[in-house]
Amino acid sequence: MARTYTPQDYNHDNYSDILWHNTIGTTAAWVVKESKLTEGYNYGSVPTSWAVAGHGDYNGDGYADVAWRNTDGRIAYSLNDKAGHQTPLTDVANPGTAWTPVKGAEGDWNGDHKQDILWQNTDGRYATWTGFGTPQLTGHEIGTRTADWHASTAGDYNKDGTDDIWWYNSATHENEAWFMQNGVPVGSFKYANSEAGWTPVGSGDFNNDGYSDVLWRNDDGRVQAWAIQGNTVAAKYDYGNPGTDWTIVGTGYYNADDYSDILWRNKSGVVGTWYVQGDHTIAGTLVENAPTDWQIQ
User: Fold this and answer.
1) How far is CA 29 from CA 45, 231, 256, in A?
2) Cα 168 vs. chain centroid, distance in angstroms?
3) Cβ contacts of 32 within 8 Å, gap of 6 or more
4) What 3-state class would DSSP assign to 236?
5) Is the full-model pTM beyond 0.85?
6) Which among 24, 172, 185, 258 is least surrounded, fewest beta carbons within 10 Å?
């Protein structure tokens, strides 16, 4: 089925791109099409007290934007101006340094087609912000979890048009989804425990059925996806083992087939993609090499 949203699309061409940040504060984007680097955007530098806290389309214009966090607790955003530039940082608020944005578990918590933020407090509380990047910023505390539970990834696991939170317990290997509406959980489901050695590392629609699936990595390097359909793990797809020198650094749409793909980084700096179609990968492509002081966000 045709997708309605392309994550990390910095030029609005319906292909996912790659955001970079280096150790001296410089930010850039690789514009990628069919796993080829077609253009590079240099977004300039920010003081090193600022770090990338997340990325996505915060204002609903179809272009990916960047969220920033300062060491003093402030959070800000820079919007993509559609010409390969980011606007200057706009301070939003300072929730205090006890609160941290959960990178990798961002989502659209209210179904308005804008990326929102999930927060974690040092005391175990979690909260959402909807409307980040707009004048309609709204916050909701959504519950407390013990330290063994991790908000590992996010996606639309029940196909209702709103992203949900995938929780993983690192001690017991339990898995649970919180189904979200209007910024708060309205239901949950506990799935089967995963086997020891497996960790959830991302989400995407790998079988093009409109439900987000969960991507897993084993300590030995193996890769697997759980095909989620609401309260059911409909299938498990084994994708092979590229070796532990390779790290999964994202998921997105790097070709035009409407199946989510996997983005990889080798410890040497090389970036590559795996094209996925359901229960198998159809190609592995090297994109480019980048110095190791640059990190994919």
Assistant:
1) 13, 37, 20
2) 16
3) 15, 16, 17, 18, 38, 254, 287
4) strand
5) yes
6) 24
